Amino acid sequence: MTPGVMHQMPPTGGSYTSCCLTLPADLPDTDLFTRDPARVTCTLRQTAELPVDTDRGESPFGWTDPR
């Protein structure tokens, strides 16, 4: 049996892998887990890498939040 993909373990108290947001039980039996991000070989990313506030507070209706 050849080893599969190396996934990052879910955070403490979490249920989903940090690398691909998948439940460990849903991954193939040949896949492995690590806590070291440098060893992760999973390339599937289901999370956005962008900051949440990409429009600098401007609404889709044209007004701006006066922070």
Poorly predicted spans: 46-51
Q: Name the structural class.
A: little secondary structure
**Topology as H/E string?**
EE
Oligomer: single chain
Shape: elongated
Number of DSSP strand runs:
2
The major beta sheet can be summarized as:
2 strands, parallel
* Total of DSSP H or I helical runs spanning 4+ residues: 0
**What's the average pLDDT?**
77
* Percent helix range: under 10%
Order of strands, widest sheet: 1-2
Roughly what fraction of the amino acids lie in strands?
5-15%
Terminus-to-terminus distance: 57 Å
Rg calculated over all Cα atoms:
18 Å
Features:
67 residues, little secondary structure, 2 strands, 9% strand, elongated
Describe this protein's structure.
0% of the residues lie in helices and 9% in strands. The protein is elongated, with a radius of gyration of 18 Å. By secondary structure, it is largely without helices or strands. The chain has a two-stranded parallel sheet.
SSE map:
Blueprint: E1 6-8, E2 32-34
Parallel strand pairs: 1-2
Brief characterization of the structure:
The chain is built from no helices and two strands. The protein has 67 residues and is mostly loops.
